[in-house]
């Protein structure tokens, strides 16, 4: 299935790129989420317009991403409280990106999208951890995280 991407899709391409994907991936994931449009003749004429508008947004987004990165770095270490399992350092469940976003917001940081937070595996223990926040393809911030058991 030939599609034209309308947004950045990890490991696939950027806005305005013509990609050939499997039918199920395009029909069940890309099209319902408005990440792509079907590559028709009319859509092919709009590719340059899509690229120009996304490039204009990207320049503004890069400046905004650097500003948000500065705000995140200004917070310092973020503390997340979670229910611990008994005396040890293990947690019931794990820390999710939504928990981290809520902790950043409560610490006076910016309002982030949980899809920007990359945990690098699972956080299932108390203590210090490091989390990556990918604000833009060119801007990512390491966020120190302290997990406390309750």
Automatic annotation (TrEMBL):
Q: Which UniProt keywords apply?
A: Ribonucleoprotein, Ribosomal protein, RNA-binding, rRNA-binding
Domain of life, per lineage: Bacteria
Q: What name is this protein filed under? A: Large ribosomal subunit protein bL9
**Role:** Binds to the 23S rRNA.
Naturally occurring in which organism (per UniProt): Actinomycetospora atypica
The entry sums up its family as follows: Belongs to the bacterial ribosomal protein bL9 family.
- Reply yes or no: does the keyword RNA-binding apply: yes
The gene coding this protein = rplI
* Stretches assigned to the Ribosomal protein L9 domain: 13-40
């Amino acid at each position: 299935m030939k599609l034209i991407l309308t947004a950045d899709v990890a490991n696939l391409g950027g806005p305005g790129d013509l990609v050939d994907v499997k039918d199920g991936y395009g029909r069940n994931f890309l099209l319902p989420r408005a990440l792509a449009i079907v590559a028709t003749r009319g859509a092919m004429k709009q590719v340059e317009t899509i690229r120009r508008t996304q490039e204009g947004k990207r320049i503004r987004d890069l400046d905004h991403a650097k500003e948000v990165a500065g705000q995140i770095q200004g917070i310092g270490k973020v503390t997340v409280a979670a229910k611990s399992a008994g005396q040890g350092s293990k947690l019931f469940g794990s820390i999710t990106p939504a928990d981290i976003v809520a902790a950043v917001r409560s610490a006076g940081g910016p309002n982030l999208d949980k899809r920007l937070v990359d945990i690098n595996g699972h956080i299932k223990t108390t203590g210090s951890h490091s989390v990556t926040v990918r604000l833009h393809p060119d801007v990512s911030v390491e966020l120190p995280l302290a997990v406390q058991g309750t």
